[in-house]
Amino acid sequence: MTPVLRLVDAQIPGRLNRSDLDVPGGEFVGVIGPNGGGKTSLLRVVAGIDGSARTLEIAGEKLSAAPPARKSQLLSYLPASRDVPWPISVRDTIALGLTAPDYGRVADLLGLLDLDGLAARPVNQLSTGERSRVLLARALATRPRLLLLDEPLSNLEPYWALRTLDVLAEQITSETAALVALHDLHQLDRFSRIIVMDKGSVLLDGAPAEVIGDPGFSTCFRVEEGAAGWAIKR
Ligand SMILES: Nc1ncnc2c1ncn2[C@@H]1O[C@H](COP(=O)(O)OP(=O)(O)OP(=O)(O)O)[C@@H](O)[C@H]1O
């Protein structure tokens, strides 16, 4: 079956070393790694924003050949920055994620992320966590084949961090996948696969337990899991 993502020989000079990645449908992938490890760089090359790749195909389609409307059905990219300069409403911000007006879909997303009470507010006047939920709703709007989310859990209160993982897991079907950058090591079991980026390369790639159990994991993160939870590696 055609993978949702096929990436061959991707690189951003000085940031991302030559990397290959195959993501079949149904995968919910956590992308972790130390600061500067290359998580954002990997997401940006897959989004077609930075760098180059010999092959970058989403659901078998060459991303660079896709017209903008098709591109937004193939993938959505949520950048790590939550800055939004526009004084436009939450409802209209979510609608901007769509390729054609569909206020039924916007209403569903407002409900899904508990944003009904904020729908008429200017998005640039929300708190950072509130804005995170709006931008996530916008990223989900087209039901893309591939979700690329850079730290969607940062700035969220515990309830919304957990609920966001539930919402994301519910979006995954056999024909879609998600790559989610995060730092919270307590959430790794929620993913079907974990990729560890270190020094601009994929260091580890596998099921959560396999990756956490690899000796390279604690060396790279300089933390280790003990009876009392994660602690600095001595
Ligand atoms: N615009 C840029 N120009 C040049 N180098 C950059 C740029 N952005 C990032 N880098 C460098 O590329 C490397 C990878 O950065 P990247 O942002 O991909 O890491 P990250 O794993 O997402 O980090 P973090 O956890 O801090 O968000 C780092 O060494 C960083 O300093």
From TrEMBL:
Pfam families on file: ABC_tran
TM spans (from-to): none
Record-linked SUPFAM superfamilies: P-loop containing nucleoside triphosphate hydrolases
Statement: the UniProt record of this protein carries the keyword Transport: yes
GO MF: ATP binding; ATP hydrolysis activity
Domain ABC transporter: residue ranges: 5-224
PROSITE patterns listed in its UniProt record: ABC_TRANSPORTER_2 (PS50893)
Keywords noted in UniProt: ATP-binding, Nucleotide-binding, Translocase, Transport
Function as written in the Swiss-Prot or TrEMBL entry: Part of the ABC transporter complex HmuTUV involved in hemin import. Responsible for energy coupling to the transport system.
Protein name as annotated: ABC transporter ATP-binding protein
Taxonomic source organism: Sphingomonas piscis
